[in-house]
Inverse folding.
């Protein structure tokens, strides 16, 4: 990935109001993933460059094989704007403008002129996934972009990003084992102090300070036995 070409693509996308990744995707598709301004294709191999300019368009917009990537982008911009592409349009309208001459022609096909089979919508929805990946890499991926099906190393592991499956230098997160503590016998003395304070069992056994003493009734005096007087008893009987 050439940083100057990347910057040129981003600046060009901003000038026409296109998403840079969409813009790079259609250029990658039209150039077979090469991003080459000199590549030839189409019927009779007459089309050239980043969006496969036909012979009339080459003359009208000033596209030629001897241009660099950055030098040919203004011709791409002039073609797109002149054919009706507007800021904010998505990839379907972007590719429709390139492939079918204007936005909104999603069912058009150039297969009869040497293009790949399928309509504009077919190509965007079914044939551009790998080119979108290449565009993302061109715009800032740290390695050549590969889609999962194209990845050369099935055993690679890591996160999926611009470079396909990226290896990660960071180790997998681990859980810290809890600190083991030695079991100790129960300190009953400490428990008693916790319950009764520093006085321990003595405080539990003795009455609390300031507590009222229970009331006590005085013991009754002992009774003396009275001897039985038979004569006195008989004297009281009625006669």
């Amino acid at each position: 990935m050439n940083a100057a070409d990347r910057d040129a693509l981003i600046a060009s996308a901003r000038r026409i109001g296109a998403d840079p990744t969409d813009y790079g995707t259609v250029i990658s598709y039209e150039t077979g993933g090469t991003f080459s301004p000199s590549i030839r294709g189409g019927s009779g191999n007459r089309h050239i460059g980043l969006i496969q300019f036909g012979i009339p368009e080459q003359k009208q917009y000033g596209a030629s094989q001897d241009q660099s990537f950055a030098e040919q982008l203004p011709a791409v911009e002039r073609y797109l704007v002149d054919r009706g592409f507007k800021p904010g349009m998505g990839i379907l309208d972007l590719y429709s403008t390139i492939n079918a001459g204007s936005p909104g022609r999603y069912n058009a096909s150039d297969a009869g002129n040497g293009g790949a089979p399928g309509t504009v919508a077919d190509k965007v929805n079914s044939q551009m996934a790998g080119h979108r990946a290449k565009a993302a890499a061109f715009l800032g991926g740290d390695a050549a972009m590969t889609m999962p099906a194209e990845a050369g190393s099935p055993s690679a592991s890591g996160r999926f990003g611009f470079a396909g499956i990226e290896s990660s230098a960071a180790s997998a997160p681990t859980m810290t084992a809890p600190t083991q503590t030695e079991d100790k016998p129960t300190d009953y003395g400490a428990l008693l102090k916790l319950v009764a304070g520093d006085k321990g069992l003595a405080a539990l056994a003795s009455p609390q300070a300031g507590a009222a003493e229970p009331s006590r009734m005085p013991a009754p005096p002992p009774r003396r036995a009275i001897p039985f007087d038979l004569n006195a008893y008989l004297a009281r009987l009625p006669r």
User: Anything to note?
Assistant: The first helix runs from residue 3 to 16. Residues 142-178 have pLDDT under 50 and may be disordered. The longest strand covers residues 159-161.
